[in-house]
Amino acid sequence: GFEPQIRKIVGQIRPDRQTLMFTATWPKEVESIARDFMQHDVVRTQVGSQSLKAVKTVVQHVEVCEDATKPRALQRILHQIIDRSGSKIIIFTETKRNADMLTKNMRYDGFPALAIHGDKQQSERDWVLQQFKTGASTILVATDVAARGLDIK
């Protein structure tokens, strides 16, 4: 991962530095790096549970493809998944603009998609989540930032 870059940066910083580390997750590798870089008087603050895990009923599908083939690949995957009754799909995009464009294109192609991201009003985000939770819309397109903290049951 990024350990060599971190070690290189820290190696060029004064040893009497103040070090603050922030991470959304705390795997053993990150903990090991932190121990190496922290001097003394370590204070660790944790928000939430240490035992967060992905739900076992969630299927994650990753497919790497060229930009030109993405629309066709997405349609193929969606048709495969939508055929399973009760399936709900979350698609992550890098930008809010991509989330909106992808949603527009998917709706044009007949897919029941809605977008959620930070530029939407709170009332619209609530409505989109409600539509997704109830199954009125089975496809949610979200930026990775918007997806943080979503609790969809």
UniProtKB/TrEMBL annotation:
Stretches assigned to coiled coil? none
Entry superkingdom: Eukaryota
* Pfam families on file: Helicase_C
Could you tell me which residue ranges the Helicase C-terminal domain spans? 73-153
The protein's name is Helicase C-terminal domain-containing protein
Query: Where does this protein come from, organism-wise?
Result: Hemiselmis tepida
